[in-house]
């Protein structure tokens, strides 16, 4: 396994009953790149995400992140290694405001223990630091003006941004983004991708992105994997992939 | 933390209690004891359900564990009163943890089913203890040593005991407010709202839920011990599932994840019970008044779930110093709206 890959998926297989959702998937994400995962609906992209993020245990195969074997590791542990994911349909903490959603995602808040939470002076300083970081993050993503809104009472596009803000609160090494621009107008979609590119260039963050809107996606990503029926069928730069006859056939065939 | 509705209702409740006090002091003391006892239990359910989203339908079982622990220690071994209170909380916490280990991983509805069975199992176990032992089986547990027995005047002793119960209620309330208005409160709510998302931001949700049920049970055990030393007699059949449901009604109509609301809900349910008990001497109904009371409470749940699911005093954001940071910085930092490009984020 080469060192410049931050994420490595090796021969992963996952079945649900008789259905083979992932079949011998081999792929990887190079450090500091935006890598895309595309493919028609039902091709196994989200399943692969769930295997990487620890929601599903693969039947076979290994997943390595940043030198750690994370195969079957629970999501909360994977998060602490620096791998954060967002969901295709945003999962808000709907009884809380946008601000609280973002604050909750911070790492190592001492006030989160049952004992220490009772004594404010123990966690006050850390909480103020986290609050400033949350305000910075929300400002960056342009959701600061909705900070006090209940997170169930904002638009779908804003929910996507709140999820992204939550993901960024822990300064992750890598983001797994499941359709970050789905259900978002093209202007905002471009803004989101520009922002992601900014994260890659300025903070050296690596990303694996599932996205259906290839027209937008291909302007930003460095490398593309194409999935079909649970397998990786093609890979390469956006230019290579878009000229690959296999890929064209998959998309036209399914359409 | 309390809005206008809550404040008005709170004043009405306080007024009714004051009116009771003017008529009959002993009756009012009894009422205040029950308010404190149920408020501690309801607050403990608020920690479990209101904050952490754990549907514990076996609350009465943990109250029974606390009551019987205190009762047996006092009646059989003469353990001093304060130690009995502590032991009751520890025993209930231990039972809570033991039950939580396999059950908190279950989905909400299955957790509800398991806990209701556990609550009943505890009652039935207590019912089947030998009648010639200290436990007393169906005859109940007798011989609990009265607390504050150095006070000779029984009326003064009652005042002291009810006073202590109120102090312990305040202790519970402050504890819940501290937990609720800290980063911990946010984590618990995040688990309640979406456990997978909470795990995805690194929260060890299993541990949090386990501790919520353990600490909630400890508080329920404390309430149970207070009950034991108030009546100095325990009967397993007072710990029926109905008690659990009453506590649930208090939390639902008061307002989940709002401690002040839960206390208000407790007062309202208890006052409805007391006032209907008084009314039944004057109003003649074609049906058994006790059933009428149950019907009234049932109707209350339905009406609340339909028209005011958030309860009388709705949930408020978790109060931490973080809000001050937002208040200070937000007005200065929201400049992107003026630039005219970020305004159309809404689709």
UniProtKB/TrEMBL annotation, chain A:
GO biological process: amino acid transport
GO CC terms of this entry: plasma membrane
Keywords: Amino-acid transport, ATP-binding, Nucleotide-binding, Transport
Superkingdom of the organism of origin: Archaea
Record domain ABC transporter: where: 7-254
Family matches, as PROSITE patterns: ABC_TRANSPORTER_1, ABC_TRANSPORTER_2
InterPro entries: AAA+_ATPase, ABC_AA/LPS_Transport, ABC_transporter-like_ATP-bd, ABC_transporter-like_CS, BCA_ABC_TP_C, P-loop_NTPase
Protein purpose: Probable component of a branched-chain amino-acid transport system.
Protein name: Probable branched-chain amino acid transport ATP-binding protein LivG
Organism: Ignicoccus pacificus DSM 13166
The organism's taxonomic lineage, starting at the top: Archaea, Thermoproteota, Thermoprotei, Desulfurococcales, Desulfurococcaceae
UniProtKB/TrEMBL annotation, chain B:
Keywords linked to the UniProt accession: Cell membrane, Membrane, Transmembrane, Transmembrane helix
Main location: membrane
Keyword Transmembrane helix carried by entry: yes
Transmembrane spans: 7-25, 31-48, 60-79, 85-103, 158-176, 210-233, 245-271, 291-307
Compartments, as annotated in UniProt: Cell membrane
Gene Ontology CC, one term: plasma membrane
CDD domains: TM_PBP1_LivM_like (cd06581)
Its membrane topology: Multi-pass membrane protein
Superkingdom as given in the UniProt entry: Archaea
GO function terms (MF aspect): branched-chain amino acid transmembrane transporter activity
Identification of the protein by name: ABC transporter permease
Species in which this protein is naturally found: Ignicoccus pacificus DSM 13166
């Amino acid at each position: 396994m080469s060192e410049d890959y931050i994420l490595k998926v090796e021969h992963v297989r996952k079945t649900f009953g008789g259905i083979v959702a992932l079949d011998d998937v081999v792929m990887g994400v190079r450090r500091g790149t935006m890598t895309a995962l595309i493919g028609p609906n039902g091709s196994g992209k989200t399943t692969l995400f769930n295997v990487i993020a620890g929601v599903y245990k693969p039947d076979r195969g290994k997943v390595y992140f940043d030198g750690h074997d994370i195969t079957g590791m629970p999501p909360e542990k994977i998060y602490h290694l620096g791998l954060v994911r967002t969901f295709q349909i945003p999962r808000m903490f709907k009884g809380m405001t946008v601000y609280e959603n973002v604050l909750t995602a911070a790492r190592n808040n001492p006030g989160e223990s049952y004992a220490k939470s009772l004594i404010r002076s123990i966690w006050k300083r850390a909480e103020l630091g986290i609050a400033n970081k949350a305000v910075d993050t929300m400002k960056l993503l342009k959701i600061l003006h909705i900070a006090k809104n209940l997170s169930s009472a904002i638009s779908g596009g804003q929910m996507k941004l709140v999820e992204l803000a939550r993901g960024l609160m822990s300064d992750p090494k890598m983001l797994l983004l499941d359709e970050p621009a789905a259900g978002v107008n093209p202007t905002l979609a471009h803004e989101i991708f520009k922002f992601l590119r900014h994260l890659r260039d300025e903070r050296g963050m690596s990303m694996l992105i599932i996205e259906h809107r290839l027209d937008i996606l291909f302007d930003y990503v460095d490398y593309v994997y194409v999935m079909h029926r649970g397998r990786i069928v093609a890979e390469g730069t956006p230019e290579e992939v878009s000229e690959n006859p296999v890929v064209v056939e998959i998309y036209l065939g399914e359409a | 933390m309390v809005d206008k509705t809550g404040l008005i209702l709170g004043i009405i409740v306080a007024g009714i209690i004051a009116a009771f006090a003017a008529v009959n002091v002993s009756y009012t003391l009894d009422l205040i004891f029950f308010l404190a006892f149920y408020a501690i239990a309801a607050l403990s359910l608020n920690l479990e359900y209101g904050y952490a989203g754990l549907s514990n339908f076996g609350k009465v079982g943990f109250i029974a564990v606390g009551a019987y622990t205190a009762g047996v220690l006092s009646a059989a071994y003469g353990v001093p009163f304060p130690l009995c209170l502590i032991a009751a909380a520890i025993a209930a916490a231990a039972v809570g943890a033991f039950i939580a280990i396999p059950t908190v991983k279950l989905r909400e509805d299955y957790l509800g089913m398991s806990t209701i069975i556990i609550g009943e199992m505890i009652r039935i176990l207590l019912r089947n203890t030998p009648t010639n032992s200290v436990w007393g089986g169906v005859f109940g547990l007798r011989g609990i040593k009265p607390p504050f027995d150095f006070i000779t005047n029984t009326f003064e002793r009652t005042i002291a005991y009810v006073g202590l119960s109120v102090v312990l209620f305040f202790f519970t309330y402050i504890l819940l407010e501290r937990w609720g208005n800290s980063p911990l409160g946010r984590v618990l709510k995040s688990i309640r709202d979406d456990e997978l998302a909470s795990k995805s931001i690194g929260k060890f949700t299993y541990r949090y839920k386990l501790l919520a049920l353990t600490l909630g049970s400890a508080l329920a055990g404390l309430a149970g011990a207070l009950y034991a030393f108030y009546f100095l007699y325990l009967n397993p059949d007072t710990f029926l599932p109905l008690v659990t449901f009453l506590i649930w009604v208090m939390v639902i109509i008061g307002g989940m994840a709002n401690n002040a609301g839960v206390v208000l809900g407790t007062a309202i349910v208890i006052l409805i019970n007391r006032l209907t008990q008084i009314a039944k001497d004057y109003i003649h109904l074609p049906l058994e008044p006790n059933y009428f009371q149950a019907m009234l409470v049932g109707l209350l749940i339905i009406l609340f779930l339909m028209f005011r699911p958030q309860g009388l005093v709705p949930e408020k954001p978790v109060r931490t110093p973080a809000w001050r940071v937002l208040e200070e910085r937000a007005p200065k930092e929201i400049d992107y709206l003026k630039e005219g490009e970020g305004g159309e984020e809404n689709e």
